[in-house]
Write a structure and sequence with these properties.
Blueprint: H1 29-34, E1 40-42, H2 43-47, H3 52-57, H4 63-73, H5 91-94, E2 102-104, H6 109-117, H7 122-129, H8 135-148, H9 151-160, E3 181-186, E4 211-217, H10 224-227, H11 229-245
Parallel strand pairs: 3-4
Antiparallel strand pairs: 1-2
Helix pairs in contact: 4-6, 4-8
């Protein structure tokens, strides 16, 4: 849901004949992003930096305002979300994403959210989100993150952006999904397209017969299970019903 699985890792072959000390040249998209006319940076790598958690957490007095903006901008309610497939993992293509994904180079996530939210009518934002995340519900998130901070969640980004910390997943190299899979996403969710080609290759990361397609929910963004909860429940029930009639154990 919302973030497509891009497959298990692959292991390098013929390593015995290679010079292990020889550097492997890779395009540096982060340098390219920083050198754009409007310098940018990728949110996953920002979330991996030591200051990120504190910059998101403080000042606590405006945490509600920040989270209201963050949830709104990634939802189907924000008019700026009109996602489309990118042609390449390159700076010129990635810069087409909103600031909450490809941030201004010198900005924190709070700053990036503010850049979009400064032109939004907050009363209209709250009215739109009333059906799926009203202020009382949002306060649950605010109180918990004020208590715990964001570092626990951000540690995931520290791992996935550092290939040296991902050795354990090599145990699953070459493995494919062996149970029925249905991918569900909101139509206004950039998460489908932030890595070019991942949605298109979903069938190839599943064993034969396991991929059950893609379901796009109109009007929803990244929080599809909250924004369109009843429709998502219907989709999941239908999917599980089909699997059960086929006699497949999940």
């Amino acid at each position: 849901m919302s973030h497509p699985f891009k497959g298990s890792p692959t292991l390098p072959f013929n390593t015995q004949s290679q010079n292990p000390s020889a550097p492997i040249a890779k395009p540096d998209v982060h340098t390219d992003l920083a050198n754009l006319p409007e310098p940018r940076k990728h949110y996953k790598w920002y979330y991996s930096t030591p200051p990120a958690a504190q910059e998101m957490d403080f000042p606590k007095e405006s945490l509600h305002e920040f989270l209201r903006g963050y949830f709104h901008l990634k939802s189907g309610d924000w008019n700026g979300n009109n996602p489309f497939p990118l042609s390449a993992w390159s700076a010129p293509e990635l810069q087409k994403l909103p600031y909450y994904y490809i941030m201004p180079l010198s900005s924190s996530m709070r700053d990036s959210v503010s850049l979009h939210m400064d032109s939004e009518d907050l009363s209209a934002v709250k009215a739109k989100s009333e059906r799926w995340l009203n202020d009382k519900e949002l306060d649950v998130y605010v109180q918990e993150w004020a208590r715990t901070g964001f570092q626990g969640g951000l540690n995931w980004y520290r791992v996935v952006t550092d290939e040296g910390h991902m050795k354990d997943v090599e145990l699953f190299a070459g493995k494919k999904i062996e149970v029925p899979l249905l991918f569900v996403s909101g139509k206004k969710d950039w998460g489908m397209f932030q890595e070019p080609g991942v949605v298109e290759k979903l069938e190839s990361v599943c064993e034969k017969g396991c991929f059950r397609g893609v379901r796009i929910v109109e009007g929803a963004g990244h929080w599809v299970q909250q924004e369109r909860s009843e429709e998502v429940v219907d989709i999941v029930r239908g999917f599980l019903g089909d699997v059960r009639r086929e006699g497949i154990s999940m």
